[in-house]
Amino acid sequence: MWSGTPPSEGVLMIGRRGLPHQDEHFQHVLKELLSLKSERELGPDPQPRPLNEPQNNGLRQFSERQRGLMRLVYCACLRDNTNQEWHNGTMSKPKSKEQPKRTATELALRQAKASANSLLRAEDLKGTTPAAATKALARLAKQGVLTRVGKGLYFAPKDTLIGKSRPSEMAIALKTLEGKTRPTGASAANLLGLSTQMPARPQLVAFTSNQPKNTGAARISLRRRSMSHPLPTLEGALLEFIRDRGESAETSAEECYRRLRQLLKEQLQMSRLRELREAALEEPPRVRAMLGAMLAYAELPETLWEPLKASLNPLTKFDFGLFSELPNAEEWQAK
Predict the structure, then answer these.
(1) How many Cα neighbours within 13 Å face the side chain of 80?
(2) What stretch(es) of the chain map to CATH 1.10.10.10?
(3) pLDDT tens by residue, 191-250
(4) 8 A C-beta contact, residue 192 and residue 178
(5) CATH number assigned to the domain with residue range 104-164, chosen from the 4 options 1.10.1470.10, 1.10.260.40, 1.10.10.10, 3.90.1150.10
(6) How far apart are the first and last CA of the chain?
(7) What are phi and psi of 222, to 5 degrees?
């Protein structure tokens, strides 16, 4: 049962406390305890019951706590099914057996079930190689588990009353250009709840030099620079809506301010707001000014919007468009 130094010859560690093997009284009682054949001989009493006179005399020299510790040592020694081992004077459990690795197909199937009604690429499968992930997704598409919607892009359908669900053109374009695009125009206003218009062709801006492929029917405009601060879809839509000065909104200016204020103050966490600010610092000054005015209007901490204000030339005036009626627009250099 024991490997390495046996407990009767080393330092017994119980929790963070140790009992030295040099203690003669402890050695005497421990040997008697180890000589017992079963734990039942100790009975229900938490203290070891008298065995014979020499043992009893030895036990009386220990406190109740020490005797309780001895009982724990004895019980641990007798439990062959605990799979504990003795290493360098301490009791420890052996390392658990490693779980067998899942195959790429198993990982893909698990991901498909967990991501029903969403799009998948090989990069979404963790724990396998890109080549194996690509083959696994193609294999599941042949089996009908996934639907191929583009090169290297698959959809995990969900069963509905009218059949299997299908991805929207917007979802396909956003997934294809993930990390390189933002909704703009009417698509951005619709995502923000400021318009009921859903364009037949999603309107996106792509941060790339070449016209992207496999984006379905999306209408894409190019912005020929890199996007060093990729944003989630909602924050990206907000930044593009502000960049367009709110031209696509179907609501009144007051209703627009109210909804954007609610979005900034209640829906977005501070970490996401900081990312939004960092992305805005790469935008033209008018975008920084309008976003800063909205952040201040939403009564968010000054430390959040102050970098935007500090980045502006105090002598420049900006066309705020829909945002020109903000109560603090003039403070933010609106015309």
Answers:
(1) 3
(2) 104-164
(3) 999 998 888 888 999 888 887 776 767 888 888 887 778 899 999 999 999 999 999 999
(4) no
(5) 1.10.10.10
(6) 85
(7) -95, 140
For 188, residues 6+ apart whose C-beta sits below 8 A from its C-beta are 182, 203, 236, 237, 238, 240, 241, 244, 248
Reading the block at residue 217, the tokens are: 């029917």
d(Cα 7, Cα 13) in Å, to the nearest integer? 9
The 10s digit of each residue's pLDDT in 278-290 is: 999 999 999 999 9
Which range (65-69, 132-136, 292-296) has the least confidence?
A: 65-69
Question: What is the Cα gyration radius of the chain?
Answer: 35
**C-alpha separations of 25 from 7, 8, 19, 70 in Å:** 15, 12, 11, 12
Mean local confidence (pLDDT), 170-196: 88
Q: Is the pTM of this model over 0.85?
A: no
- The amino acid present at 36, given as its one-letter code, is L
Q: Letter for the amino acid at 260?
A: L
Structure tokens at 328: 């603090």
Token pair 């033209």 is found at 284
* Residue the block writes with tokens 């103050």: 265
- Distance CA(214)–CA(151), nearest Å, equals 7
Span 108-114, average pLDDT: 80
Determine the Cα–Cα distance for residues 137 and 121; give it in Å rounded to an integer: 8
